[in-house]
Amino acid sequence: MKDYKISDIAKMANVSVATVSRVLNNSASVTEKTRRKVLEAIEKANYTPNAVAKNLRSKKTMALAVQVPDIGVSYFADIVKGIENMASSLNYKIFICDLQNKKEKAYEYMSLLLNRTVDGMILVTPDLTDEEIVSYVDQGYKIGVIGRHIDHPEIPCVYTDNVKMGKEVVSHLISQGHERIAFLSGFAHAIDSYTRLEGYMKGLRDAGYPFLPELIENGDFNEDKGYEAFKRLIAKNVHFTAVFAANDEMALGVYKACNELKIKIPEEMAVVGVDNTRITNYIAPKMSTVDQPKYTMGALIAEKLIDQINDNIYHDQRVFKVDSTLIIRESSNYRRK
Question: Which of 256, 281, 267 is nearest to 332 (CA)?
């Protein structure tokens, strides 16, 4: 006998998952005709809503959990600040779940949602696959996502176009006369890392330059690892004149290595980071970087998820692709001859 999910009922009744959810919660916003269609599909499938998920809908804890890969990275800290401030304004508390870059912790922290400790979970650049996230939501659990677009009617998403961002950085560096550009990637499993790498590769291709695997190193979104990654590039004895680091912290590691090796920035090595952290405007030379509205992204996902938890299903858009801005400063604003 098939184990039906809420998404199956939605398909049978030719309605959205959100509509089925409203019917199960006796929402007054559903027309009688639609309600009958859904109830007939439920009866035909002999569908029984997950008991734990139903309990989640009926009893609220007024709390959210937020999973972040590494709370020590300023990018995530700024997002969490936006989440916390918006949640607080709506009388919600948050639990911060620091994965410490260990995927197994993502599953452990999901227990906060499954055992009803929190009403909803926000995943910041999630380690879980789209399929895993959808499976939780199809059981009635409330999840919001930052850093990825998941095509599901009940998953609010906020993300930036990292591919476009990567292409813009590469285009800028090429306009400054750089033909061989190194790339420092972040965590191997981080979607932000490989989508920025994709943008880097497309930027090279669009300009007619080859992609050279030897110019790629992993720096784990970390200053010390970024320093080590740049040193490995130098040790390969491959020629390059610019570095695109997938975040500012790795770019700071490049600064440290260049200082030790007496490599002048930007005259001998251009450097561009991502995130526009505070220090980028105070170090010498000031660092070129990509600004993302991190606080706004956090506040927006918190607002939308809480709205959904309270069955005030939003009538405006569910998916938000926010713009990033390349900020050109001294570290890359130097035209090579």
Answer: 267
DSSP string, 192-260: HHHHHHHHHHHHHHHHTPPP-GGGEEE-TT-HHHHHHHHHHHHHTT---SEEEESSHHHHHHHHHHHHH
C-alpha to C-alpha distance for 197 and 159, rounded to whole angstroms:
16
The C-alpha atoms of residue 98 and residue 70 are separated, in whole angstroms, by 6
Q: How confident is the model over 55-80, as pLDDT tens digits?
A: 445 578 999 999 998 888 778 889 99
If asked whether residues 127 and 184 sit together in one domain, one would say no
Q: What is the DSSP string of 266-304?
A: TTT-EEE-SS--GGGGTSSSPPBEEE--HHHHHHHHHHH
Q: Do 247 and 175 share a structural domain?
A: yes
Strands 289-291 and 325-327: antiparallel
Residue 156: inside a domain? yes
- The domain of 115 spans 61-160+294-323
- In this predicted model, what pLDDT tens digit does every residue of 157-192 receive, in sequence order? 999 999 999 999 999 999 999 999 999 999 877 788
- Computed on alpha carbons and rounded to an integer, the radius of gyration of the chain in Å comes to 23
Query: Is the bond leading into 293 cis (omega within 30 degrees of zero)?
Result: no
Contact by Cβ (8 Å): 186, 220: yes
What confidence tier does 20 reach under pLDDT thresholds 50, 70, 90? confident
191 and 249 in a single domain? The answer is yes
If we measure between CA atoms, which residue out of 99, 102, 105, 152 comes closest to residue 124?
Answer: 99
Token pair listed for 219: 């720096």
Cα–Cα distance between 272 and 264 in angstroms, integer? 14
What is the widest separation between alpha-carbon atoms in the chain?
Answer: 75
- 131 and 278 co-located in one domain: no
What pTM was estimated for this model as a whole?
0.76
CATH number at residue 45: 1.10.260.40
Percent of the chain beyond pLDDT 70?
Answer: 92
Distance CA 128, CA 288 (A): 32
Alpha carbon separation from 51 to 47, 139, 219 (Å, rounded): 12, 9, 44
pLDDT beyond 70 at 112 = yes
**Which CA distances in Å does 120 have to 85, 261, 280?**
16, 49, 34
